[in-house]
Amino acid sequence: MDERTVVELVYRPQSADTLVGLRVRERIKWAGLLLRGAFLFLSVGNWLLTTVARGSVDVFPTALFLLVVLLVWGYPRLQAAHLQRLVGWQGEYRATVSPAGITCRTDHGTLIQKWSFFQGYRETAGHFVLLSRDPNIMCLDVLPKRGAHETGDLERLRAILDQYTPRV
What we know:
Elements: E1 7-11, H1 15-28, H2 31-54, H3 59-88, E2 93-98, E3 101-105, E4 110-113, E5 118-123, E6 127-132, E7 140-144, H4 153-164
Antiparallel strand pairs: 1-2, 2-3, 3-4, 5-6, 6-7
């Protein structure tokens, strides 16, 4: 394989990486975002109706409302922290991106994914997020840009991704 068509990223996954991936997924797949928004809207409406009907702010409905707001805001962060516990113990990741696909190695295993596995990718300020082809986008590959160690790696990585999978 030509060295110019292979990019290796070396990094330790962080919870913030997973959170970026989940946010990208959420922007593409609107169902979760809409459900959380509807839940928040109904909670605000319930709290307002209860407060107006009684003419004062009660402790229990207010506490319940604040709990709902905290859960809606914190759910993606809780999910990212949980996923970090699943992958973080494996230590350093060495991801090789090539025309064959993406190979990710740790001290405990190797995962090989062909380009046909992905529906596309999205680039953020600090990451490349690859989204699986399944309808619920259950699998994400988050490639942090901080893992690139050579000059030109990010440009080559972007070129490989553009060649083998579309931007979404």
